[in-house]
Specification:
CATH superfamily of the largest domain: Metal-dependent hydrolases
Bound molecules: zinc ion
Radius of gyration: 24 Å
Shape: elongated
Number of domains: 2
CATH architecture of the largest domain: Alpha-Beta Barrel
Low-confidence stretches: 470-478, 480-487
CATH class of the largest domain: Alpha Beta
CATH topology of the largest domain: TIM Barrel
């Protein structure tokens, strides 16, 4: 069959005042198209790191003839500023892009103007469309990615599973393929893994083809806007990233939550890149620990504890944000599981059980898969754990028990919403510390393990305390205790 090629060249200029907005370049897709090729060029290109300034960084994406409406667009791929060329055919595509029917009608190339230099930016796009006269596609239009067919993970002793929930492949700006990341996660001894490429679900489509018998794979994406990133776990939908205002951010998070996702505000710290929507809420978790602790994670921890002190119950979570092999040579290295997320799932676990445990705050963080680990409990008949709400006795005396694994040389610290309540240096690898606390003024108790340089090596979510006398609370608490019976 003869193949014909049509080439469209678009050129333009972008002014510095357009920075941090989106530009759409429309073109027509004919009915008999079989392949689309894009070549993009622009002036004074610099890297996407928030530390680099003075040049241009432009993200590239594309929408098909289903349109460009916010939250409901015909998403066909995104690679940020990583690539200047890509293709989409009916059966194959550049990583980051979605193969499938080339729906006839008006398509839009998306330019995300992340950084524009003071002198502006000149760009050229060459669009090449291959077609075969009379061709009609029988390939599907890409939709949400179905749940992965991975084997359930058996419970471990103590009921805690460990995993990684934030990392990247070459489907966005990483250098690894999905299969090699799954292998690395297994080698690190992790039980579950979510790969969260920026703004695209193409990695999830590839993982859906894979059967991983000995690690639990969870669907994920990192929604990456100009002023903040959030992770979405447990759904296969594409989530819109074209957020220009706080209300767009709220709407995008709500869109994910309504579909059943667990969401997290990512790396709210300088150069995170930072989270610039402090007023936006609606996410379940805050990533208080992104990569090695010394990389300014104290700011993210402070962002979380400020919200806890306001009475918000948001789950502390962590992730390595691993991108590329060179990060393994850093000192300390940024590998999968740095930090490790421990989730309490005492029964046989699937992705839904992991995500439910995260929603409940049954989460403890550690600097490595084999690093120190804390299990914090309130010594009551229900043994309330991190994430639970419990009612202390009216006297306000509460004994908490911290099981500290691999903690020798570190200091256990217990905090409420205002201050440090307790501190003890650990000398043995395995220690169970009992602390009798006065919690009359406390909203919660949470634990940290710090090393002599004051780096966090492990931390827990809070055990929330509820002194409210209402009958409604009584009912909620007894219901809660019933749910925990038999632990
Ligand atoms: Zn990020
Ligand atoms: Zn990331």
């Amino acid at each position: 069959m003869n193949t014909f090629q049509q080439t469209i060249t678009l050129a333009g200029r972008i002014g510095v005042e357009q920075a941090k907005t989106y530009v759409y370049l429309p073109f027509e897709m004919p009915g008999d198209a079989t392949r689309l090729d894009i070549e993009f060029e622009y002036s004074h290109r610099i890297g996407s790191s928030p530390l680099l300034e003075g040049g241009n960084t432009i993200d590239l994406g594309i929408f098909d003839a289903r349109g460009i409406d916010f939250l409901n667009a015909g998403f066909r791929g995104w690679t940020g500023s990583e690539r200047l060329t890509f293709f989409i055919s009916e059966t194959d595509a550049t990583p980051g892009y979605l193969a499938g029917a080339l729906i006839p009608g008006r398509w839009h190339l998306l330019l995300g103007l992340y950084k524009i230099a003071p002198e502006g930016c000149e760009y050229t796009v060459v669009i090449t469309i291959s077609s075969q006269p009379g061709h009609q596609s029988t390939e599907p239009i890409p939709g949400p990615v179905p749940e992965f067919a991975t084997a359930p993970v058996l419970p471990r002793e103590g009921g805690w599973l460990r995993g990684e929930l934030h990392c990247h492949t070459y489907h966005s700006d990483g250098d690894g393929d999905p299969v090699s990341l799954v292998r690395m996660a297994r080698e690190r001894g992790l039980d579950f893994l979510a790969i969260t490429d920026h703004n695209t679900i193409s990695c999830q489509r590839e993982l859906a083809q894979l059967y991983a018998p000995d690690i639990l794979l969870i669907r994920g994406v990192e929604v990456t806007t100009f002023k903040g990133h959030f992770n979405v776990w447990g759904v296969g939908d594409w989530i819109d990233f074209r957020v220009l205002r706080a209300q767009d951010m709220t709407a995008a998070i709500r869109f994910a939550v309504e579909r059943g996702a667990v969401t997290t505000c990512n790396h709210p710290k300088p150069f995170g890149p930072p989270w610039e929507y402090p007023e936006v809420e609606g996410y379940h978790c805050i990533e208080v620990w992104n990569g090695p602790w010394y990389e300014m994670n104290q700011s993210a921890l402070d962002f979380w504890t400020e919200r806890l002190a306001q009475g918000k119950r948001i789950v502390a979570i962590g992730g390595s944000d691993y991108h590329r092999r060179s990060q393994l040579l850093q000192d300390p290295p940024r590998a999968l599981g740095t930090p490790t997320v421990w989730v309490y799932v005492p029964e046989t676990a699937d992705a839904a059980a992991i995500l439910n445990a995260i929603r409940r705050g049954h989460v403890s963080l550690s600097d490595e898969p084999e690093g120190p680990f804390l299990d914090l409990r309130a010594e009551t008949d229900t043994m309330a754990m991190a994430g639970d709400t419990m009612r202390p006795s009216p006297s306000g005396r509460l004994t908490v028990r911290a099981e500290c694994h691999r903690g020798a040389g570190f200091v256990l610290q217990l905090f409420d919403h205002r201050k440090k309540l307790f501190e003890q240096a650990l000398t043995q690898p395995q220690t169970t510390v009992r602390a009798a606390l006065d919690v009359r003024e406390s909203m919660f108790v949470r634990a940290e393990l710090r090393d002599p340089a004051d780096n966090v090596r492990a931390l827990t979510n809070p055990i929330y305390l509820d002194f409210a006398p209402s009958a409604l609370i009584d009912k909620a608490v007894s219901q809660h205790y019933n749910n925990h019976a038999g632990r």
